[in-house]
Structures are given as C-alpha cells and as structure tokens.
C-alpha cells in the first residue's frame, strides 16, 4: 500500500481523491499515479501537472519518475508559502 | 547542541529567545533576531495591487519533513558562516493579524555573520520549508500564492560568492 498526501490548495482539490493506493503495480511512479487520477479527478490531475508542484517520497523530494515501493508515503507539494 | 528548531502552535517570547542565545557562551558578540508577523491585509492571487482583509491565516505544514528541511537550512547557514548558535521557530495553526509567525535568531562572534545568516535563513525558509498559508477574510478562504520576489531572494544566495 502507498499512502497519498496532498498539501495546500491540492488538499482542497483532493477531498474526494483516494488517500492510498492499495495494490501497487510494478514500476509505478508518482507520474503514473498522477495520470491515474486524470479520469476521476480531472481538476486535481491538472493542478498536479503544474510545473511548480513537487513530489516527495518518505519526506524526501524526488523526481516524478522515481519508482515507488510498498509502504512508501507519497506527497504532492504546491509551492511553499511559509515565513 | 546550541541550535533550536521548533514548529509549534504556541506563541514564543522574543525576550526568552534572545536570552537563550545571549547565554550560550562567552564567544557570543553579536545577536541578530528577526520576527515575522501576520499582516491585516494581503494581496490576492494574481492581483498584487488588490489587497484582501485578513481575519486569520491558517498555517499548514508537513510534519516530519518540515523539521528535517529546517535542520538542513540551519546546517547550510552554519557551513557558510562561523556561527555560535541559531534558533528557528515557526508557528502553525490559525494566526490573527499582528500575531507572531516566525522567529529567526543568530548568535555569532561578529555582526556581519549574524546579519547575513539571518537573512539567508529567512530567504531559504520562505522558499524551501514545507509550510502553506491559507487566508480567511471577507467570508472567503484562499491559499496564498508563492511570491517570485521570495524565490529571487533565495536564488541570490547561490549566485553570491562565499564570504
């Protein structure tokens, strides 16, 4: 299983989106998961495709084609606005 | 360990944080502190000239990742300048206008390191640490957009030569 987290404005768009992926196909990537959202959550998928959105796996920033493994925590991070 | 990194809902005391840095050791010859506050008006997304009344800001963060990123930013500052101690405190949750959001304090032997490092810490914190602000005001909610002036300020540190 992979847990999914959506922060900032992405969290509002992801209210009806899955919070986890129960069965992981081999070679699944964050990009693959984003594309999976396209059919059921087009608005979220579009927001995730914005170039400023970053992805992290287990709290480390990774590339969109990073392979995912069982137990990973995948988070989608819009541009940060702290301070 | 002289450094302190904290993400908390509670307010902080400038005087307590200053005294902590002041009393670390006898090598402290300069302390620079910065405190960020919530403004009562904010520019809305895509309309920098129109300002929106702020009832409160909600500060969200990514627990676990934020602390790691802040630790890393402090380590980068310490690698770059000779510093005695650093404090970074960032608040989360609902904050009203005039509330304190963020504190950065730097203690060093001489003032230049403390001034430069405090600026660097704020520039990096604003563009790299996983915090997000939502504005509630005039009956509506909206997530604030990142400002390009902040990313420009952070980018400048990677162009600058090492002091």
Largest sheet of chain B: 4 strands, mixed
Estimate what percentage of residues of chain B fall within beta strands.
35-45%
- Number of distinct beta strands of chain A: 5
**CATH architecture label of chain B:** Alpha-Beta Complex
Average of pLDDT of chain B: 94
The tally of helices of chain B reads 4
Helicity of chain A, in percent? 10-25%
Cα Rg of chain B:
16 Å
Biggest interface between protein chains, with counts per chain?
Answer: A-B, 17 and 27 residues
- The rough form of chain B would be described as globular
- Poorly predicted regions of chain B are none
Helix content of chain B: 25-40%
Number of helices of chain A: 3
- Count of individual beta strands of chain B: 10
- CATH C-level name of chain B: Alpha Beta
Strand order of the largest sheet of chain A: 2-1-5-3-4
Task: Furnish the topology, listing elements before pairings.
The complex is a heterodimer of chains A (83) and B (163).
Chain A: E1 2-6, H1 9-13, E2 20-21, H2 30-36, H3 42-48, E3 54-57, E4 60-62, E5 73-77
Parallel strand pairs in A: 1-5
Antiparallel strand pairs in A: 1-2, 3-4, 3-5
Chain B: E1 4-8, H1 14-22, E2 30-37, E3 41-44, E4 47-53, E5 56-61, H2 65-80, E6 83-91, E7 93-95, E8 100-108, H3 111-128, E9 131-137, E10 140-143, H4 148-159
Parallel strand pairs in B: 1-6
Antiparallel strand pairs in B: 2-8, 3-4, 5-7, 5-9, 6-8, 9-10
Helix pairs in contact in B: 2-3, 3-4
Précis, in short:
The complex is a heterodimer of chains A (83) and B (163). Chain A is α+β, with helices and mostly antiparallel strands and 83 residues long. Chain A has a single domain, classed as Ubiquitin-like (UB roll) (Roll).
């Amino acid at each position: 299983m992979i847990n999914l987290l959506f922060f900032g404005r992405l969290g509002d768009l992801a209210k009806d989106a899955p919070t986890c992926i129960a069965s992981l196909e081999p070679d699944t990537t964050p990009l693959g998961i984003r594309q999976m959202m396209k059919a059921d959550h087009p608005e979220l998928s579009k927001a995730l495709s914005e170039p400023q959105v970053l992805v992290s796996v287990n709290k480390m920033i990774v590339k969109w084609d990073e392979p995912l493994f069982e137990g990973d925590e995948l988070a989608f991070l819009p541009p940060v606005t702290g301070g | 360990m002289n450094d302190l990194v904290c993400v908390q809902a509670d307010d902080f005391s400038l005087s307590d944080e200053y005294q902590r840095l002041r009393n670390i050791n006898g090598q402290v010859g300069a302390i620079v502190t910065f405190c960020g506050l919530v403004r009562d008006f904010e520019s809305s997304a895509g309309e920098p000239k129109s300002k929106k009344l702020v009832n409160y800001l909600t500060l969200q963060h990514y627990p676990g990742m934020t602390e790691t990123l802040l630790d890393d930013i402090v380590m980068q500052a310490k690698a770059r300048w000779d510093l005695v101690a650093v404090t970074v405190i960032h608040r989360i949750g609902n904050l009203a206008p005039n509330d304190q959001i963020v504190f950065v304090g730097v203690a060093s032997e001489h003032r230049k390191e403390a001034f430069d490092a405090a600026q660097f810490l704020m520039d990096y914190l604003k563009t790299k640490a996983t915090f997000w602000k939502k504005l509630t005001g005039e009956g509506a909610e909206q997530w604030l957009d990142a400002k390009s002036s902040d990313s420009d300020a952070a980018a400048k540190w990677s162009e600058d030569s090492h002091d």
